[in-house]
What we know:
Layout: H1 4-11, H2 13-26, H3 29-32, H4 38-51, H5 55-59, H6 65-90, H7 94-104, H8 111-119, H9 123-149, H10 157-182, H11 187-211, H12 213-217, H13 221-245, H14 249-260, H15 264-274, H16 277-318
Helix pairs in contact: 1-11, 2-11, 2-16, 4-8, 4-10, 4-11, 6-7, 6-9, 6-13, 6-14, 7-15, 7-16, 8-9, 8-11, 8-14, 8-16, 9-10, 9-14, 11-16, 13-14, 13-16, 15-16
Amino acid sequence: MLTALPARIERAFLPIAVACSAAALIEPALFSWIKPHIALALGIIMFGMGLTLEVSDFMGVLPRWRLVLAGAALQYTVMPLLALGASALFGLDLEAAVGLAIVGACPGGTASNVIAYLAGGNVALSVTMTMVSTALAPLLTPAIVYALYDTRIEIDFWGMARSVFWIVVFPLVDGLVLRRLLRERISGLVRIFPSVSILAISAVIACVMALNRETILALPLLVLGAVLLHNVAGFGAGYAAGRLLSRDRRDAITLSIEVGMQNSGLGVALANAFFTARAALPGALFSLVQNLVGISLARIWKRGGRSEAMSATTGQDAA
């Protein structure tokens, strides 16, 4: 029973995330209390990712440096341009369009690492891409928003650096070290932590929904359509680029996820700080959409990976 439960939670990620988000919209207090603990929840997720990895996994990323650079380049060129196109196509007002551009100019988010794991992607590559794009964000995010809309925003470089260290690097390294030291003694913990990460990320998504309940329930269909197009096109562009740059399907999946999933929390914070609640709307919607789309694609990619493995095994047996 205990060994089967984590697998069931992994398979039910999408229903769990949807159910939590729906509950948050009906009764915000169920999840809004998580707000002060979001950083802790993300740290727990990264600790779990560290437990599933080895140092050799990160050494394997070194020959893929071109993919890391390509991921950053796509994130800071394709995503802002897609935001511009989606805003024009759906005729968004200036504030909503600026908000979508801010999301498009943000770095990758921690949730992408969980989705990469569930999709059968390269988690070490995903984490590396997230850290590289985040390191570039204090310079590139304000520059891109200014270039597109002649509007100045500021990002606290050292504040972001501290956040990346405590939320991503520190817990990830802890997980790596613990696995290296204890090995088989923590095998049970390694098996259950992905399901813990799923529950944590579902709770974080629901918290974002609870905090933005009024805005979301106003059903801004044009903004939702633009956000959905922006997000899906980002996943598609990342996957296509990954297929061109690497023969490894896992690399293409990882690049797709890193390009398609943004740090929407940062986008909401910047929009609220420099603009209005209307500008923060695309970021709030993007948070929900990117996770639902990412979870759905992860299930498809995971099934595709199993099918390829079975086909390869069958071919070897026949040979």
